[in-house]
Structure prediction request, 57 residues.
Amino acid sequence: MQIEVSIMLDVGKAWVACICLLGSVLVDIATSTSWGIYGANNVYRNVTGIEPESKPN
Prediction:
């Protein structure tokens, strides 16, 4: 039983890593446009409560 749990945790960590990697790639693509930067800044502001330094013109 303990082994099954640890395998599930490892699989979960792998999924999280994949999702984080995909997310960062999508963010890179999105932020390559000014609209994407605007959206990313809004998400950043909402998540962290910190005003982003770079703002779209």
Observations:
- Residues 24-50 form one domain.
- The CA atoms of residues 45 and 51 lie 6 Å apart.
- The longest helix spans residues 2-30.
- The radius of gyration is 17 Å.
